[in-house]
Amino acid sequence: MISLCFDYGHGKSDPGALYKGRKEKDDVLKLGIAVAKEVRQHGINVDETRATDKSMSLSERSSFERKGNYDYFISFHRNAFKPEKANGVETFTFTKQTPKAKSLATRIQKNLVGVGFVDRGVKRANFHVLRETRSPAVLIEVGFIDNTKDNGIFDSKFNEIVKAITKAILDEVGIKYAASSSKPTASSNSKETFYRVMAGSYKERSNAEAQMEKLKRAGFESTIMIYNR
Predict the structure, then answer these.
(1) What is the pTM of this model?
(2) What's the whole-number mean pLDDT along residues 22-29?
(3) What's the CATH superfamily of 3-181?
């Protein structure tokens, strides 16, 4: 099975880039989780350095990746410069670029440009998460958070962005993309029996989120259901 490590930049007390109340940490968490969901539906394992709003140092992120055996590492970010002075998407690999990292970065960049972002190209950088991880690694800067046009694309074409990144990953590993609506689902008249598993009940939401993160890392879809006794 293909196995990926997704990394969502910043978190908790580190908001990343900010603009008019918008936080990079929130945008990339939302985007990354959506892409992970799509990719998993195609039979690929995805582990996440964080699946909630929590703090993680750069070394914790790279250590997480190094404990696994991944085919690719993908870090999600949004760019920033001077308000309204720069825009577009760019995808990074480590300075000592591997063929696999270059190939994936090129596919992602091309697909995101196709959504409507200005093409800033595939670049090389000595970023920690590109240098200290073992698997072929890419870092995506999905538009500038301090640019109104890029934010408009991010919001209005969010589903297209998710699809663009998902298709790039699937193309790279040789899996055909299947839209969610075309994936097999149980008919309302189906007589098949399904069994739902509950992994626990918690008084504190933080404990529930921690359990959900463990399940996701193990490759299981999970959700939090709220009820009152």
Answers:
(1) 0.80
(2) 98
(3) Zn-dependent exopeptidases (3.40.630.40)
